[in-house]
User: Which sequence fits this backbone?
């Protein structure tokens, strides 16, 4: 498995990976991937803006991703929001850690000093990974997510980098 910066050539495979993870209705707030063109536009803009976005590749197939998208407003421009996912067959092999390491290093090099994330509070495996990577709990949002009529709390976590740490 190769961890590489995303490129426009990865957009369709990234879209397919995102769709599989979203349809699990457990790890992401969306129920399916956005339309392919919207994902292509997102990737194109991230590449143009040199956003910290990496993919895990098996051959040329995206089997996981992580991105830290910077906030746009001036007072929070030092902040980025983490999004990530790994296909079910590839979980438990260290890809999440490798993706996070690459993503965090690039985000920090680009001036991000605060990385935020939100995870379903019952996603113990992901939360344990985030804790091992240095993220700390900030809050729990009660009933933040709803899938098929069932509510779930969300853990809000943060990683402070550089002078913010």
Assistant:
């Amino acid at each position: 498995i190769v961890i590489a910066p995303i490129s426009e050539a990865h957009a369709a495979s990234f879209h397919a990976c995102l769709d599989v993870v979203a349809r699990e209705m457990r790890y992401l707030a969306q129920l399916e991937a956005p339309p392919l063109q919207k994902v292509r536009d997102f990737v194109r803009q991230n590449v143009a803006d040199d956003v910290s976005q990496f993919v895990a590749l098996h051959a040329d197939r995206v089997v996981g991703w992580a991105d830290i998208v910077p906030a746009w407003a001036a007072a929070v421009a030092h902040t980025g929001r983490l999004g990530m996912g790994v296909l079910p067959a590839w979980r438990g092999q260290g890809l999440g850690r490798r993706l996070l390491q690459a993503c965090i290093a690039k985000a920090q090099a680009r001036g991000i000093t605060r990385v935020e994330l939100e995870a379903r509070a019952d996603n113990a495996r992901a939360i344990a990974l985030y804790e091992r990577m240095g993220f700390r709990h900030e809050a729990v949002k009660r009933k933040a997510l709803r899938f098929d009529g069932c509510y779930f709390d969300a853990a809000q976590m943060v990683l402070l980098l550089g002078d913010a740490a």
In short: Strands lie at 2-5, 52-58, 61-70, 79-86, 114-120, 136-147, 150-160. The chain has four helices and seven strands. The first strand starts at residue 2 and ends at 5.
